[in-house]
Amino acid sequence: MNRLSFDDVVGMERAKQALLLLAVDPSLAGLALAAPVGSGKSTLARAFASLLPAGAPFVELPINVTEDRLIGGLDLEATLARGERVIEPGLLARAHSGVVYVDSLNLLDAGAAAHVMDALARGVVRVERDGVSAVYPTHFMLIGTFDPSDGPVAGSLLDRLGLIVALSAQSDVHRRQEVVRRNVRPASDRPDENGDDMLRALIELARKQLPHVAILDEQIEALARAALSLGVEGNRVDVFAVKAALASAALAGRADVTEADLEIAAKLVLLPRATRPPQPTAAEQPSQPSQAAPPPDGARDPAETPEEKSPDQTPTPEHIEELLLSAIETELPAELTQLPFAVQRRGKTGSRGIALNDRRGRYVRAVPGAPRGRKIALLPTLLAAAPWQTLRRAQQPANGHSASRVVLRKEDVRVKRFRDKAGTLFIFVVDASGSMALNRMREAKGTVARLLRSAYVHRDQVALIAFRGPAAQLLLPPSSSPDRARRELDVLPTGGGTPLASALWLAWQTARQARTRGIHNITLVLLTDGRANVSLHPHPDERSADKEQIQNEIHQLARCIAADRLNAVVIDTQAGYLSRGEARALAGDLNARYVYLPNARAHQITEVIAP
Amino acid sequence: MSPNSAASPLAPPFPFTAIVGQDEMKLCLLLNVIDPRIGGVLVMGHRGTGKSTTVRALAAVLPRITRVAGDPYNRPPEEMHDAPPTAGANGHTERSHTPKLKTERIPVPVVDLPLGATEDRVCGTIDIEQALTRGVKAFEPGLLAQANRGFLYIDEVNLLDDHLVDVLLDVAASGWNVVEREGISVRHPARFVLVGSGNPEEGDLRPQLLDRFGLHARITTITDVALRVEIVKRRRAFDADPFAFSAAWEKEQRALRTRITRAQKAVSAVDLPDPILNRIAELCMNLGIDGHRGELTLARAAAAHAALHGRARVVWPDVIAVAPACLRHRLRRDPLETVDSDEKIERALSKLTLDAPAPSA
Predict the structure, then answer these.
(1) A335 touches chain B (CB under 8 A)
(2) What is the pLDDT of residues A169-178, one digit of tens each?
(3) Could you tell me where the beta strands, DSSP code E, fall in A447-572?
């Protein structure tokens, strides 16, 4: 098989660097690599296998991997044949001291993701199923690649991976040529040029060097401060950052950590987890309020209080932190929401609202249960009955023909369980421009609150898009958490132009993303008067937008949404005597229900959309 | 690649006493150790803040328990006599015990419930091996049996299958696990402290489950830089040599173990003065908490807190220390309300404190 070597993969220097660090210190746990389609991310991940010691397993997980394949279970065939239980280890156990690779990490089944995380955290995989209990050691590196436009990776999974890299598509002409050249004639055909042997040797040396690399307390502190400044959640990140810095130093053959190493750690570990631009104030406070007065619980002991900082050593942690942040700053996008992982923190799916049910969605497993109104899983039912056949036949009264038949009992019956996002996703699209905006936004917020209050029961989710100024904004990504809604909708800006087309576009994208995650009941709720004055592609030298163009955009988008069979409700908020029927026309294009509620109140809106 | 026995850990867990910060969570766990009737603890908060590490570290600081040697249900000898017998194969019962039972000391079980666990594995089922090889029905106890007299830990509890949650609630409420399978019927004790953890941003907990937890601890990212440096240093030291690191903390571990043992013995005799009890009731009333579970939990937790601190009588500061964890998940919730539940509790507490001088001992 003509697999490309690591050295043959052109470009993606940052990702390569991350993989080298991971090879030096596998306890960095893994790498999440975000890049658009066709950027060669999976090629690189697979090429990584060639850097590992011979015999290290490279296990590829399909995103729809079943639980028993993943963690293992009873090997029924062997069990029946041998008359003793035979446990078959799953993919995770097989990856021990090697690599688990997931292409499209963001689409990995939530249940599977939970097992992967669990195994990563404990270094063991535990089988507790089919009456089988076993523990296998498994220390593996997880490499996950994904295309961010397909949606985010579960935050809990990202949190367990030390390194995160986001790449953009390659555009450099020379680089593209090189890609083609290398693909046509891989290095394995050019014995003089094979760089992988050299890299393997380098990694080997760095692994030996790693235990001898020392890091100063001030340097650890600088990393922790930088993490705080960037609003990174959790404390695990510090450990990863320090490990990355140490691995970087080891790779350079040094015994001490330099600023360059810290910078690499900041770029690969901290920056992608930033949730805000650097805010040094948080680090300046000596402690958080909750830490200020810890309850006298007795669990604390004197050894826990940290040692005093050694005073006045140069450079100070503050100084290093400043250097780090300024190095990072150039890479921080102007809009923080453009950070792939900041979006993820806000818009992550996790497993919120996922419900196993008896009727629809994807068949994930069979469970015992009465067949009434449900789908029987035939094979699991027979498998469940199989082990007891000897026993049951022995117990049954001698009965001519029954001996050859399978004796099924009620408790053998397995019914199918499906995984689906139950409930409805309501996407609110609210006009936040103009004078009536404040009222509209307040009532929309009230509606969100009402819906989420009953979300426990219905498993509904709510998203909120506000449009004003140059473009629409997703204020609340699909969520069922009242806490989150409260936080995200705390401040509601209003006023400015009316970019209705942009809002329709964003709503459409949000709906499509939700669909890829298995949410099929989606309702768009538009609160608007239907009037727009900002185009999707504003002409740079024309101040007043072309009315016709704007109408055209809206018309086209609305038709697209209607063609996608999305439910929609248009709530016309315009006072009657001013209305020129724009909202009604929009409803027509959207194939939507039209409701006229000039002073829409939250309870009225709720009544209309979720009676 | 041979499986290891679930009971023998591959490396020692991170020492409980070496865990930096997260005091509320640690306190909540200890209170449950001292008085299991408090009803478990739910830990919600940020990722990467040491939730799982802390729970898994717990077993090592708990005093060992005595059980009948090899009993899969961890029963103490005195329970063996009046316990309903396990129905064995063909109607035999296992009541043929000699009056003198061999006993052994085991660590308090802390059992992990993995997310994908099947109901069979949790509740127990028929031993397949025996059914196949000898054609006999023997009950094979599940995780609930293992957890008897110990802790059952569910990480990502908010992602657990609904039907498993129902089973757990049933068992947790009754203290008994009942299995009917393949014509045999087994009923065994399953009294455990339920410990759940999760990240609230990944989905809320069903109200029934939320209410079932005695305590609700919050856990947040530690922002104190010095503490963070200390966390990194300890983690690195542990990763480098878990055995040496654990040995270095053995003294602290032993001291805490002694303290817990004393508190466990003392807690049933801790005096809860009527004036304090009255104010506990008043506090719950002022906060509009439905039912009596709030008062009960608060009273028990305060007594356990007093015992932990070596006092024979509950004082008002004991109540103040445990009130947020006992009550914050019992307040009625308004999705878009801006006042934090902790703030409400604090206000109610300070109002009581101002109204009357603390009726301390």
Answers:
(1) no
(2) 555 556 666 6
(3) 461-468, 471-479, 519-528, 567-572
